[in-house]
Inverse folding.
């Protein structure tokens, strides 16, 4: 199923109000941010011409494609999470094939730590937990790079493990939102990407470019 970008844009704005009790603020920055996301999910060729789509980092030339997921990088409060949450509502309501399961990175750590310790928890084994996240067709993880290590009879770099498993199994697309490096006032995209290698290992950094289209959101925070 392919939906036109015009229809998806209309559905998104309605869902945004339902999700956040306010209208999507349309400014030059927010429209430049949302346009490639809408075009990506509607598989519109204009996606490949958007300034927000990163086609080179350092000496590495990136090859965007609709077969890859999305890695959205930006400053605090400029719409990364709220946009994905509203689109998630649209995809779920209409049962579209691009629908995804969404999680906060730190909530995944908490869930993992409950396994075995909380008898009321829905999953009784680490295998079930990892299988759910590895094999779902669409997985969205918000606020990556800020989560702590998981502790469950030993320390686990959970996000690294999830990304590795999804890369190896190639069951579906992965979507990630994250900020620039903590304390970075220059909005250095390459440094934000390099942080993936520092936190999750060089092999994850290398796989970013084959797993994801990279989008950079611009503009000020809306949380003030």
């Amino acid at each position: 199923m392919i939906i036109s970008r015009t229809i998806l844009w209309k559905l998104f704005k309605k869902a945004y109000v339902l999700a956040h009790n306010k209208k999507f603020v349309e400014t030059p920055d927010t429209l430049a941010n949302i346009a490639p996301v809408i075009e990506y999910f509607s598989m519109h060729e204009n996606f490949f011409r958007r300034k927000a789509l990163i086609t080179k980092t350092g000496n590495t030339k990136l090859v965007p494609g609709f077969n890859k997921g999305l890695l959205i990088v930006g400053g605090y409060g400029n719409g990364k999470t709220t946009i994905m949450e509203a689109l998630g509502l649209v995809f779920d309501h209409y049962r579209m094939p691009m629908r995804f399961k969404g999680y906060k990175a730190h909530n995944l750590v908490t869930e993992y730590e409950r396994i075995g310790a909380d008898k009321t928890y829905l999953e009784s084994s680490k295998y079930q937990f990892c299988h759910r996240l590895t094999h779902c067709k669409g997985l969205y993880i918000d606020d990556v790079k800020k989560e702590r290590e998981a502790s469950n009879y030993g320390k686990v770099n959970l996000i690294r493990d999830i990304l590795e498993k999804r890369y190896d199994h190639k069951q579906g697309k992965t979507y990630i939102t994250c900020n620039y490096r903590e304390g970075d006032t220059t909005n250095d995209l390459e440094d934000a990407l390099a942080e993936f290698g520092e936190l999750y290992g060089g092999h994850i950094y290398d796989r970013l470019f084959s797993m994801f289209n990279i989008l950079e959101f611009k503009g000020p925070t809306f949380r003030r």
Observations:
- The chain has eight helices and nine strands.
- The chain has a mean pLDDT of 92.
- The first strand starts at residue 56 and ends at 57.
- The chain has one domain: 53-216.
